[in-house]
Amino acid sequence: MKEKHLLSYLIHANKGLEEDKQISPIGSEISETDELGQMLLRLLNDSERECDISIIFSPSETGEKKNLMQDLILQFCEIPSLQNGLILAEKLSICTPQNSGLCLLFILLEKNDNKDATILLSRFPADIGVLADSTDGGLKLAYVKQVFMKSQNRYKAVLYRGKSVADGLMFGKAIDKQVNYGSVDLAKYWIFDFLESTYKDSSGRGTRRFTQALKDAVKRCDSPEVTKELTGIALLLPRLGGKSTSISQILAQYQLSEEAQHLIIASLENPQTKDTVFLFDSQEALSTIPFKSIELDNQAIMIAPSTDFEKIFVPSDEVSVSGKLTYTTQGKIVKEQFRARK
Amino acid sequence: MNIEHVIEKYISNQKVLNKVKNSLVNNVNELLNGYQNIDSISGRVKTIESFKVKAFKLLDTGEPKYSDPLIQIQDQIGIRVVVFYKPNVSTVREVILNYFSNIESKTIIPDEDDKFGYEATHLILAIPDDYRDIELGVEECPEFFEFQIHTLFQHAWAQANHNLQYKPSTKLNKTQERKISFTAAQAWGADRMFEELLDELGEN
Predict the structure, then answer these.
(1) What pLDDT, in 10s, does the model give residues A297-319?
(2) Contact flag B124-A65 (C-beta cutoff 8 Å)
(3) Is ipTM strictly over 0.85?
(4) pLDDT at position A341, please?
(5) Do A177 and A259 belong to one domain?
(6) Same domain, yes or no, for A120 and A70?
(7) What is the 3-state secondary structure (H, E, C) of chain B?
(8) Which residues from A are below 8 Å from B97, CB to CB?
C-alpha cells in the first residue's frame, strides 16, 4: 500500500522584492478523500501523459554533482512534512517574477518505503472569475478575485518518478504551457530557476537530430515534389531560433505531407525522439542544414543542396560594375507553380 | 540487493552496453570531425571484474555504497578523447557540452599543490535517447556515461602508471612513490612547455 501526501501552498511572487516586502507562503495538508484530494490524485495520474518536457538537474556552478533543488525534493520524499514542503514553496516564491502573480503550489507524493517514489509539483495560477449562485431560484453573480485554475496556457508542473529515492530522481518530466506557447523568456523561471534543471536534450543535440534526419530524408527521397517540400522547410528553420519545440511540432507547424513526415521520422536513430522537446538553435541548424539558398535583388531565389550548390548554380567569373552576377543552371522542368505573394 | 543477480545481469547486458558504446564513439567522432589536434577517440565497457569490485564497495559505516549498482554506477560505459595540447581540452569539452547534458564536470588534479599525479578532465553525461537501447528497457540501460579528456602526456602517464601503482605485488616504498610522482611531474611539465610554446608561436 502506497502512502500518499497531498499539500498545498499559497505562493506570492517575491522575485526581486526586498526581504521585508516579501510575503511568505502559507501551507496546508489536503485529505486524499476530499473532493479536492480526489481531483489532485487524478491530476497525478494524468501527469505522466501531460508532462512532456524531459529535464535533468543541472550541476553546480563549479561542475559538481550537486543541486539544491534535487536535495530539497529528496528531503521532502524522505520526510514529507508541511515544513519540508514549505521550503520548496519558499523557493518557488523567490523564483516567481512579479508579472506571474499569485499561485497555488500543490505537492503530491506517492511512495512505498522510499521505493517507487512519485512526486508531482503542480502550479495553478490565480485568475479572476464569476461565481454563479442559483440556489434561491434566481441568479446571483459575484466577482471572485482569487480563483486558482489549471490554466490552459499558464499551467506548470513537474513529475519525478524513481525506482528508489536513492536513485536521486535525476530526470523529471515537466510541463510549462508558457514554454509551449513559445515564450521561453517569460516562463524560464519554472524549469531553469525554480527546478534548477535544463532540458535533457541540449539545443545542439535536438537541433542536430532534426537537421540530420532532414538531410537523410532528402537522400532517401525519390519524389521531386517531396524533395521540394523538404528543401522548403530547411530554409524556414532558422526562424525557429530560441523557440521551445519538438520534431513533431515542427512537422505539424509547417504542415508537411505524410510522406515527408514519414521520411524524416524514419531517419531518426530512435523514432521516439520525435516528441522530445528542445530549444531550437538556429546557428546549429545553419551549420548542418543541408540546403543553401541565395536570393538576388531581381527577386530570384535559388535553392539547392549545400554540398552541390556551386555545381547546380554556376556563377559567372565576371562581376559587373554594379556588382551583378550571372548564374547558370540546366535541368528538366519537373514542376511549375505560381504562388500569390502576401 | 542480490549480488549474484546484479553480476548476472551485468554480464547479460554486455552486448547491449557495447552497442551503446559504439554508437557514442561514432557520435563523438562525428561531432569532433574537423577539429584539429585530436589524437584518438575510444570507448570501453567496464570489465566485469572491475564492475564487481565497484558494485560491492562499502562505505566507512559498513553499508554498501550502491543500493542499485546497475543504475547508480555511471561509468559502465566510458569514452576517452586524447588531444595533443592542453588548450585543446577546453575546446573538446565545449563541443561535447553543446550536444550532451552533464551532471558533473571536473578537472582532476592532485589534492595538494606540491604533489604530482593523475590529471584529466572527467564529465558525467546523459546518454541521449537516440542511443539508449530499447531492447534493454528504459530502467535497465544506464542513464549516464563517463567522458574523459586527456592530453597525450596525461594519457601516457596514466596508462604507464596504472599497471605499476594499482597492481603491484607488493606495496610501493617511499622512493618508488617519489619515482611515480617524478614521472607525473615530467608529464605535467611537458604539457606546460607545449602550452607555452603554442602561446609564443601564436598557435593558441
Answers:
(1) 898 888 887 777 888 999 888 88
(2) yes
(3) yes
(4) 47
(5) no
(6) yes
(7) CCHHHHHHHHHHHHHHHHHHHHHHHHHHHHHCCCCCCEEEEEEEECCHHHHHHHHCCECCCCCECCCCHHHHCCCCEEEEEEECCHHHHHHHHHHHHHHCCEEEEEEECCCCCCCCCCCEEEEEEECCCCCCCCCCCCCCCCCEEEEEEEEHHHHHHHHHHHHHHCCCCCCCCHHHHHHHHHHHHHHHHHHHHHHHHHHHCCCC
(8) 202
Give the chain B residue whose CA is nearest to the CA of A209: B130
Q: Identify whether B169 is part of a domain.
A: no
Look at chain A and report how many structural domains it folds into.
Answer: 2
Residues 208-237 (A) with a CB less than 8 A from some CB of B: 208-209
Instruction: Assess whether A171 and A184 both reside in one domain.
Output: yes
Query: Between residues 41 and 100 of chain B, which touch chain A (CB distance below 8 Å)?
Result: 67-68, 71-72, 97-100
Query: Do A185 and A214 fall within a single domain?
Result: no
Q: Least CB-CB distance to A167: which of B71, B99, B106?
A: B71
Domain hosting A236: range is 203-292
* Interchain pair A57, B68: CB under 8 A: no
Q: Is residue A96 part of a domain?
A: yes
The closest CB to that of A167, out of B68, B97, B134, belongs to B68
Q: Using the beta-carbon criterion (under 8 Å), do A63 and B103 form an inter-chain contact?
A: no
Same domain, A106 and A243: no
Q: State whether B104 and A63 contact (CB < 8 Å).
A: yes
Given A56, A201, A204, which is nearest B103 (Cβ)? A56
Is there a contact between A8 and A104 (Cβ–Cβ < 8 Å)? yes
Residue B168 lies in a domain: no
Tell me, what's the pLDDT at A305? 74
* Cβ-defined contact of A65 to B103 (cutoff 8 Å): yes
Alpha-carbon distance B136 to nearest alpha carbon in chain A (angstroms): 14
Measured CA to CA, the distance from residue A72 to residue A91 in angstroms comes to: 10
d(CA B200, nearest CA chain A) in Å:
30
pLDDT at B146 over 90: yes
Question: Which residue of A lies nearest to B107 if distances are taken between CA atoms?
Answer: A63
Domain ends where: A146, A181, A199? Answer: A199
pLDDT score for A342:
43
